[in-house]
Design a protein that fits this description.
This protein has 300 residues and is an alpha/beta fold. The chain is 45% helix and 14% strand.
Length: 300
């Protein structure tokens, strides 16, 4: 597949171990992406196994179809949102599954496609929609929310210290012209932060938290996460496991409390009381894995 940047799966060995994969099992990759985890999963559940791959990014799903075409009907790609996991599986006639994976991070395939607008590493349209058919884009939020709404968004979804200053400058700048590109937004954010703090508090690019916050809002990532996990638990067979990889504290917090509540209700046992993090060698080889955390639960 020329010109396709294939995403390196995070904590692959840990995921494969904790899913307890065996031939004949039915597994759901709820965020199949470009099939980094799925390829390795399929190799371990055949013969007789079945992998359902869900993704709302149809472009990524097309890549997964190509990469896994050799597995034939053992791989079932589904375009949809994982919050609808119960309905999507019901439509396939599946009542219970033996394992589920949620990998909540953006793939490098998405990040490095400037036309998607997820990153400030290159200039592109301010989009950030995982599902291109979605109605609201980053452009809509950045150019239409009022200053208070923008400030709240940046704090709630990005924990951005300078949320008030950034929101104020966004509103000022868009009065001159619409904020239409990723570089425009990144430049506004950088100028909002006092110069003496830019390097002291930001080991990462100063626009990172703003882009995270806007992306989360565009895709309603936190709103749908708890519901998706609860639905996943409901369709897990006895002894089935769910693995969830998160990449920032807001996601991890949702997963932590969803698992705790489900355990208190007698539905699961939490296998990882504290989240697993990648080994130093993995972080060295794949820096994008550095903030990842893995939580695992087993159905009782």
């Amino acid at each position: 597949m020329p010109n396709i940047r294939i995403h390196t799966p995070v904590m692959l060995r840990e995921v494969l171990d904790y899913l307890d994969l065996k031939p004949g099992k039915t597994i759901v990759d709820a965020t199949v992406g470009t099939a980094g985890h799925s390829l390795a999963i399929l190799e371990r559940i055949l013969p007789g196994g079945r992998l359902i791959g869900i993704d709302r990014d149809e472009t990524s799903l097309d890549v997964a179809r190509q990469r896994l075409s050799e597995f034939g009907s053992a791989f079932e790609p589904i375009h949809g949102n994982f919050v609808d996991i119960d309905t999507l599986l019901k439509n396939l006639g599946i009542k219970k599954v033996d394992g589920i994976l949620f990998d909540l991070g953006l793939s490098s395939f998405q990040l490095f496609d400037t036309s998607r607008g997820f990153s400030f590493q290159g200039d592109g349209p301010l989009d950030m929609r995982m599902d291109k058919g979605s109605y609201i884009s980053a452009y809509d939020l950045v150019n239409n929310l009022n200053e208070e709404e923008l400030s709240t968004l940046l704090w709630n979804y990005g924990e951005e210290r300078w949320h008030n200053r950034i929101a104020r400058l966004i509103v000022q700048e868009r009065q001159r012209e619409p904020i239409a590109t990723t570089m425009q937004l990144a430049d506004i954010v950088a100028r909002s932060i006092p110069s003496r703090y830019r390097h002291k508090f930001y080991r990462i690019h100063p626009a990172t938290r703003t882009f995270q916050a806007v992306r989360i809002a565009v895709n309603r990532e936190l709103e749908i996460l708890e519901g998706a996990v609860n639905k996943a638990i409901a369709i897990m067979d006895k002894k089935a496991r769910t693995c969830v990889i998160s990449f920032h504290s807001l996601e991890d917090r949702v997963i932590k409390f969803a698992f705790r509540k489900a355990q208190a209700d007698g539905l699961i046992n939490i296998i990882t009381p504290k989240p697993l993090t990648p080994l130093a060698l993995e972080v060295e080889n794949n820096p994008a894995s550095r903030s990842s955390k893995l939580r695992v639960a087993e159905r009782v």
